[in-house]
Design goal:
The complex is a heterodimer of chains A (313) and B (293). Chain A contains 13 helices and seven strands. In chain A, helix 2 runs parallel beside helix 5, helix 3 runs antiparallel to helix 5 and helix 9 packs antiparallel against helix 10. Chain A has 313 residues and is of the alpha+beta class. Chain A has three domains: 102 residues, Ubiquitin-like (UB roll), CATH 3.10.20; 126 residues, Orthogonal Bundle (Fumarate Reductase Iron-sulfur Protein, Chain B, domain 2); 75 residues, no CATH class. With 293 residues, chain B is an alpha/beta fold. Chain B has a four-stranded parallel sheet, sandwiched between helices. In chain B, strands 6-5-7-8 form a four-stranded parallel sheet, sandwiched between helices. In chain B, strand 1, helix 1 and strand 2 form a beta-alpha-beta unit. The relative contact order of chain B is 0.15. Classes of the chains: A alpha+beta (313), B alpha/beta (293).
Chain lengths: 313, 293
């Protein structure tokens, strides 16, 4: 007999959420969603959650199992049992619960809408459709697979502390259009996406890659947008300056010049940003943690420079 | 045990105590580390933002250097580890790409075959041989020291590239702590992001991420936090005074590098491990140390 420890919430009855335990014999081959359905149908009809296709296509049944977002229809229930034969089920994170496992997706959709999730092309269309080559489509193939389940949004480490971050799903959707050969607003898009709350606020934690049930894998899509932004010359922000300074440093010495990166990331004329570096700089200096002032190159740096040249960097 | 040591940039710069303690831990364990002095920076995922083939080629060059020595490559930084593994995966999964990269490398006299494995220091300790050596050579069990692991994202995610079993709920570091005689502290933030990659872009969010993890570790009873990533160390230790202000809490918790903890148990003194070079005082740890037997 397995225990399903489910986080319940119904503000009309009780203002605070609470956990309720249900016992269930997991039928052979049952998914987590099958089990939750059984609990609803046989034990408590008030248990509330979203579901539809049962085939990892519609993206409705995202929820946290043992602390991590997943599609309930895509996980074998037995694989989630802990050592006490228990599965803890909670609503998705970073969104407000409405009732039980149902959360308010409005901020999620607002952010998706903010990145203009539609083709922008003022040129009048040809007689038939606007076509793409297979190579052109490949650039947006992965991001096209997003089913908007919200799993990535739920477990995003940045959103936990900053709700202004556009978040992985909206940014993966943005790549769907930044990378689209038929879209004519690439520069405008990457300029907007380089603003605070955009691509450069991603902290590389990889949670979105881990939670994504499809090949959309937002972190990698965010990196693709970063490449386009740098290529398009959208450099007037700390993220782009950081990347360029980093690459410059590796190119000249084969390694990171930690004394230059913070200054160059802030920008030489960003006085507020530079002043902001003083406390950490002083602390590091007092503890003799400042990296050596004379920056040493790696051995055989010539070969590294040759690789940069060969790749036109 | 002989490995090619991929030092990473930060252990040569802002966290030199990591390099010092790695050498001591290796000496104490009888591990022979051959420093890869001509290996380039892993790119930390940032070089890949400019050009992924550039990052992968530079990393393939490092793999080729280790291969030439006939050694597996060991990292002492979670970020280096994750980034190198991703490059390895990109290259190994695409023969045409590998051919192209090898063509670029050939002029510098390098050839990447994919024979050397890439391992984080924690993962060589967690092998049967590593554990046996630890048990054999411990001179100062860290009994009574409550230690909170902070893994660093890149050694856990994506899980397909992680050497830890069950990266969503890993126990590899905690198992090492137990072998050293310490008491592991399990807390929810131990697998989260420290926020360091965005400290230049969104400092408040970055420090709040680090702060939440520190508060979580402290409230779970930790005497210290131990990480295998010098970048996590920078955010958790070097920025801790600013984090305290931001979190409006007067907490303070020392943050050690994994090799420092290991070397303490092997009998090295805190001074030999440059533990006085941390921003946050490590006195709390020193007080709990027993004499070397």
């Amino acid at each position: 007999m397995a225990t399903f420890r489910i986080k319940r919430y119904n503000p009309e009855i009780k203002p605070e959420p609470y956990y309720e335990e249900f016992q269930l014999d997991i039928p052979e081959g049952a998914t987590l969603l099958d089990c939750i359905n059984l609990i609803k149908w046989t034990q408590d009809g008030t248990l509330t959650y979203r579901m539809s296709c049962r085939s990892a296509i519609c993206g409705s049944c995202g929820m946290k199992a043992n602390g991590h977002a997943q599609l309930a229809c895509q996980r074998q229930a037995t694989s989630l049992l802990d050592k006490d034969d228990t599965i803890t089920i909670e609503p998705l994170g970073n969104m407000q619960p409405i009732k039980d496992l149902v959360v308010d997706f409005e901020p999620f959709w607002d952010k998706v809408n903010k990145i203009k999730p539609y083709l922008q092309n003022d040129v009048s269309p040809p007689q038939k459709e606007r076509t793409q080559s297979p190579e052109q489509f490949r650039l947006i193939d992965d991001s096209s697979t997003c089913i908007m389940c919200g799993n990535c949004y739920s477990d995003c480490n940045v959103l936990e502390v900053d709700d202004k971050f556009l978040g992985p799903a909206a940014l993966a959707k943005a790549q769907r259009f930044v990378g689209d050969s038929r879209d004519k607003k690439t520069l405008e898009r990457v300029t907007e996406l380089s603003e605070p709350g955009g691509i450069w606020d991603c902290t590389h934690c990889g949670e979105c890659v881990e939670r994504c049930p499809k090949p959309a894998q937002p972190f990698y899509r965010i990196k693709e947008i970063m490449s386009v932004a740098l290529e398009q010359g959208v450099h007037n922000n700390n993220g782009a300056r950081h990347a360029l300074s980093f690459v410059k440093s590796v190119k000249s010495s084969g390694r990171l010049n930690e004394n230059m990166i913070p200054v160059e990331s802030m920008g030489y004329f960003n006085f507020k940003g530079l002043i902001d570096l003083i406390p950490i700089g002083l602390r590091m200096l007092l503890k003799r943690k400042i990296p050596p002032i004379i920056h040493k190159s790696i051995d055989d740096v010539k070969d590294v420079k040759r690789i940069f040249k060969e790749l036109d960097q | 045990m002989k490995f090619a040591l991929f030092t990473g940039c930060v252990s040569q710069g802002a966290t030199r105590e990591l390099m010092v303690s790695t050498k001591k831990a290796a000496e104490g364990l009888g591990i022979d580390f051959v420093e890869m002095k001509s290996a380039a920076c892993c790119g930390a995922g940032v070089v890949g933002e400019k050009s992924s083939i550039l990052a992968d080629t530079l990393n393939a060059r490092s793999f080729a250097i280790a291969e030439k020595q006939g050694l597996d490559l060991v990292t002492i930084c979670s970020t280096c580890q994750g980034v190198l593994k991703k490059s390895e995966c990109n290259i190994k999964s695409d023969p045409e790409y590998k051919k192209k990269i090898n063509h670029i490398l050939s002029e510098g006299g390098h050839q990447y075959d994919g024979t050397s494995r890439i391992k984080h220091f924690a993962n060589i300790l967690a092998t049967d041989e590593g554990i046996a050596r630890l048990k054999e050579r411990i001179k100062r069990p860290l009994t009574g020291l409550k230690v909170a692991a902070f893994y660093g994202c890149y050694v856990l995610r994506p899980s397909g590239l992680s050497d830890f079993e069950n990266p969503d709920n890993p126990t590899g570091l905690e198992e090492i702590f137990e072998v050293l005689g310490a008491t592991p502290v399990y807390y929810p933030s131990r697998t989260k992001c420290c926020g360091f990659p965005i400290v230049m872009m969104n400092k408040t969010a970055s420090l709040e991420m680090a702060g939440n993890a520190l508060v979580d570790a402290i409230e779970s009873g930790a005497d210290c936090v131990v990480t295998g990533c010098p970048l996590c160390h920078l955010n958790l230790d070097s920025y801790q005074p600013e984090i305290d202000q931001l979190m409006k809490k007067k907490y303070s918790v020392p943050v050690l590098h994994l090799p420092q903890l290991v070397a303490l148990a092997l009998g090295y003194s805190p001074k030999e491990l440059d533990m006085d070079k941390h921003i946050v005082s490590t006195l709390q740890v020193k007080r709990k140390l027993h004499p070397v037997s």
